[in-house]
Design brief:
about 350 residues; two-stranded antiparallel sheet; 15 helices
């Protein structure tokens, strides 16, 4: 099925209606266990305008900085991989996941989440969890960047504790071999298709030199640069990063920085993946065995990429959610509510 990207009156990209049928099929194919824990109409009575409120705040954020879409999407990803999708990445404190190596000086968008939470609280106080806000904002970030839409399953509650150790050990790293990344996904119930489709989130956003400069200088005893990196691109990146400022950024998806599309996979076929974990999906020995065929499939079909991405996002959003009476609804996404510490349960202290 062909997919086209149009623009609304505000200049934001969206997917034409003929793609929505494909996404509906994806939703119908979800396992009963996923559908039963969370619901796409969870706030229909308690906060009926929550989706509109969140969408407007995400629009405001992307108007100010288009990169923020990638940052909000990444927050949801990094939240779900640690303690499950419980908003733990948003907590401040000495054991904050924000201070873990994969997030320090990297995870961003917390002020935007604060603004969304404030707007949601004004609409319906004490009702919508920070974990659900992350899930909705991630979906909206994809849509407003030109990607597919889907019905976000809701009903998560917020955890009370962060897990810095878990973030350090469990989050996939751009330096990890593909098999290590596959294993980390498997640890949270995701498979190899999820690895490749969710890696496609790198079709938007930026990365710092510190995350890929290992491919540019003194790569090995036989090559100064990574041989799986296009020579012209390597030269450009060397010029960008040679001053030693590891915080200098460049596009994750070269020549398609802000558009959520399948261009990322085309780059991998041409040895233009920025991170070693990106290019490894196509060029490494592990990748050739496990992921290369999916990279090729997605490069040939944006519809297949979008369909698998939607399925994988919904699966990821269902990693160990706190529901029912577990957890809480934080009034401030950065701190647990003071009056909940006397409760009993696995996520209470």
């Amino acid at each position: 099925m062909a997919t086209t990207v149009d623009f609304d009156h505000q200049g934001y990209r969206y997917i034409s209606h003929h793609f929505f049928f494909t996404v509906l099929v994806a939703l119908l194919c979800l396992s009963p266990s996923v559908r039963s824990q969370l619901s796409d109409n969870f706030y229909a009575q308690s906060c009926p305008n929550v989706l509109k409120v969140v969408r407007q705040q995400v629009i405001n954020a992307l108007k100010n900085e288009m990169r923020m879409g990638a940052s909000l999407l990444r927050l949801h990803f990094h939240d779900c991989f640690v303690n499950g999708c419980d908003g733990s990445i948003l907590l401040d404190g000495s054991d904050s996941e924000k201070l873990a190596a994969p997030n320090r000086n990297s995870a961003r968008g917390f002020e935007v989440v604060d603004a969304i939470k404030s707007a949601v609280e004004s609409a319906c106080s004490g009702t919508v969890s920070c974990a659900d806000i992350l899930a909705i904002a991630a979906r909206d970030s994809v849509v407003l960047s030109g990607g597919p839409s889907w019905k976000v399953l809701l009903g998560r509650r917020d955890g009370l504790v962060a897990n810095q150790t878990g973030a350090n050990s469990g989050l996939p790293s751009p330096f990890d071999p593909i098999n290590t990344i596959i294993n980390k996904f498997s640890d949270v119930g995701l498979n190899t298709t999820d690895v490749v489709s969710l890696s496609g989130a790198h079709t938007i956003g930026l990365a710092r030199c510190t995350l890929f400069s290992n491919r540019l200088f003194n790569f090995s005893s036989t090559s100064s640069t990574d041989p799986t990196l296009d020579a012209s691109m390597a030269a450009d990146l060397q010029a960008l990063c040679q001053n030693g400022d590891g915080n200098t950024t460049t596009a994750l998806d070269r020549n398609s920085t802000d558009a959520f599309d399948n261009h990322y996979y085309n780059n991998l076929l041409n040895q233009k993946g920025l991170l070693s974990s990106d290019q490894g999906l196509f060029s490494s020995d592990d990748g050739i065995a496990a992921t290369k065929s999916l990279v090729e499939a997605y490069s040939n079909s944006s519809s297949q990429f979008f369909l698998d991405f939607v399925n994988s996002m919904i699966k990821m959003g269902n990693i160990s959610p706190l529901t029912g009476s577990a957890g809480e609804i934080r009034s401030n996404c950065r701190v647990a509510n003071l009056n909940t510490y006397s409760n009993v349960g696995p996520y209470y202290v």
